[in-house]
Design brief:
The chain is mainly beta. The protein is built from 5 helices and 35 strands. It is globular, with a radius of gyration of 24 Å.
Length: 640
């Protein structure tokens, strides 16, 4: 790790050599997620990445999972082709240690704790904000590694239609149509989209044996989605609005199917899954006085997942499993602006989670009541940001978290920062209340405690004109981590317990620069993710990842080239299975046919690299397939 920090020090020295004079294009923007209130990115004391609609269109990513995997501090691993379930690790944490919000609403499964990001369509997204580092003091449970907030399209300018259609490798077809804009004091946006792909077999090759999951057929994917958003200002002080997103995704995947006793198994059947995600909310905002603004948001999110598998002991009989999560959410937030340099935020939240499943849980509902207080202050060249929160979780008691960050502004471009913060992740319904399972020798443990984290962080940031850069060092200690505890005689029934701790530390560097017709972006991450007891590296955490992007604009065209690299890592917790490192070359191009029409293309994995990001942890250790060289060509209509 010392070598990694020495390399990070060299990057820091290069960063300190950046110019102190403005270049052509300003990159400053407003961020909401880092403080829960609109804050200029140059004033933040946290590690944040913003991806706007223009970048989404240009990056050439096929899916949200693909796009997130190219960003600093994020590692994504999918189990096969398009729409495949996978893992998302932010700064080395587990998948359910990252809180995902859609327009301010939690959208996740209460049984697994994860968000189905593989089902969220890129065409519906206006903006993504990624906050790296513990943020439970702002948002409560699950924000151990950070927060990813997705904003759907909001509508702006004169009302106009838009459309996008394209096709590519693996018989992939995509399309979306929308209409939005502003009329007087009303903003609105409506959009519908669809996607179809034959994809490819989710298992790369057969390896033989009873539990071989290989099936040579293509595992197709379908996704239909709609979104709506509006807001209306009644007067200078009062406004209201609402949002809706609905996604219906269907896919096939390869998996070994066994009878209830595990004696008869087969892989010659396409397992199927349907994922329906819904999030809708209404809000009202009222300016009580010149320094006090209050807002009330009421919403609901739903994650409905169904799977079908083949039971070989019953020939063609299909067994259906269903896991539905509904979250009712109410937030009352008050923002006090005493002066441009001093702001206070106070919020109260109520959340009711309900589970409806083919599994019969001892408890199928849980209520959380929360209070949060945040402060932002500027004292000359000194900045202070602090937050504290308490979450009272039904049957789990009260849990307090806090954060404190200090920043020193060397000038209007350079900021040095340091911070500490705590976070927690509450056990899922599967962890707590899974019924007695005599086949798998498992039962939930209602006495589990939340997993906890304590993070320390140092950073330096630069933002001026067309240049933005940053370097962050972090040390995050996780304790009371959940893990399976085998049972003993006479029942041999195992359960989950708070039995582990881990240390995550590393450095993250990012750089972006625009000058004339050129744009450059780079990101490098160093990560040490270790289990404290064994000293082993946590599975599928790459110690080094990076991206390098170069873009060039012409009169009516733009071309971009991106190189993505991932180092060697371990597939299993015992560090006996190694996954080789790999590098991917992606190319994208766009050409304006006229003022409103654009022809675009993207070539991913241009060098046709064969690589593996996930290998099964049971014999015969099948490799999940990844996309070969693939091309997508489309046309976009967006009136200017």
């Amino acid at each position: 790790m010392h070598n990694q920090f020495r390399r990070a020090g060299l990057v820091s020295a290069l960063l300190l050599a950046l110019p102190s004079h403005a270049t052509e294009i300003a990159l400053a923007t407003t961020v909401v997620t880092a403080t829960r209130t609109p804050t200029q990115s140059s004033d933040l004391l946290s590690d944040v990445t913003i991806v706007d609609r223009e970048q989404i269109d240009r990056l050439g990513a096929d899916t949200l999972s693909d796009l997130l995997g190219r960003l600093p501090g994020v590692q994504v691993a999918g189990n096969g082709g398009r729409g495949a379930t996978g893992s998302l690790s932010l700064r080395g944490t587990n998948t359910n240690h990252t809180l995902v919000l859609v327009d301010g609403l939690r959208l996740s499964s209460a049984t697994t704790g994860a968000t189905a990001i593989e089902s969220l369509p890129l065409d519906q997204i206006e903006r993504i904000e990624i906050l790296r580092g513990p943020a439970s003091s702002l948002y409560g449970s699950d924000a151990v590694g950070g927060v990813i907030q997705i904003f759907t399209r909001a509508g702006d300018g004169a009302p106009a239609p838009r459309a996008s259609f394209g096709a590519g490798t693996y018989r992939t077809r995509q399309g979306s149509v929308g209409y939005g804009g502003q009329v007087g004091d009303t903003r609105f946006d409506l959009q519908a989209g669809w996607e179809e792909s034959d994809s490819f077999s989710s298992i790369r090759a057969p390896k033989g044996g009873l539990y071989d999951m290989y099936n040579p057929d293509d595992d197709d994917y379908r996704n239909g989605n709609v979104a709506a958003r509006f807001s209306h200002r009644l007067n200078e002080d009062l406004s209201f609005g609402g949002e809706l997103l609905h996604v219906d995704a269907k896919k096939r995947f390869d998996s070994t199917n066994c009878d209830d006793f595990g004696f008869v198994c087969t892989a010659d059947f396409d397992n199927r899954q349907r994922q329906r995600l819904t999030a809708y909310a209404a809000h009202v905002d009222y300016r009580v006085s010149s320094f006090w603004k209050t807002s009330l948001r009421l919403g609901q999110s739903q994650d409905r997942m169904s799977t079908w598998r083949h039971d070989p002991s019953a020939a063609v009989y299909e067994v259906r499993q269903r896991y539905d999560t509904t979250q009712d959410q109410l937030t009352w937030q008050n923002d006090f602006v005493f002066s441009p340099a001093h702001r206070l935020t106070a919020a109260a939240e109520w959340r009711r989670v309900r589970v409806d499943s083919t599994q019969v849980f001892v408890h199928d509902a849980q209520t959380t009541r929360s209070l949060m207080l945040g402060y932002q202050g500027r004292y000359g060249n000194h900045s202070l940001q602090a937050s504290a929160r308490t979450d009272d979780i039904e049957r789990m008691g009260s849990h307090e978290t806090g954060s404190l960050a200090y920043g020193y502004h060397l000038d209007d471009a350079w900021t040095l920062r340091a911070g500490v913060g705590t976070a927690f992740h509450a056990p899922t319904f599967n962890d707590l209340y899974w019924p007695l399972d005599l086949v798998n020798f498992y039962q939930g443990n209602p006495n589990l405690k939340p997993e906890r984290a304590r993070n320390r962080e140092l950073g330096v940031g630069y933002e001026r004109g067309g240049t933005r850069a940053g370097l962050s060092f972090f040390h995050n200690r996780l304790r009371d981590l959940l893990d399976y505890v085998p049972g003993s005689a006479p029942t041999w029934i195992g359960t989950y317990g708070n039995v582990h701790s881990a240390t995550l530390k590393g450095a993250s560097f990012h750089f972006a620069h625009r000058a004339g017709v050129w744009e450059y972006r780079a990101a490098l991450d160093w990560l040490s993710a270790k289990d404290d007891a064994s000293g082993n590296t946590l599975q599928r955490r790459a110690p080094r990842t990076g991206t390098l992007e170069l873009r060039r604009r012409f009169d009516a065209a733009e071309v971009g080239v991106q190189l993505q690299g991932v180092s060697q890592r371990y597939n299993d917790r015992n560090n006996t299975q190694t996954l080789a490192g790999y590098g991917l070359l992606n190319v994208d191009a766009a050409y304006r046919l006229d003022r409103d029409w654009t022809l675009f293309a993207r070539l991913n994995n241009a060098l046709d690299k064969e690589y593996t990001v996930v290998r099964s942890t049971m014999g015969p250790f099948n490799d999940y397939a990844t996309a070969e060289r693939n091309l997508f060509v489309g046309v976009r209509y967006a009136p200017r």
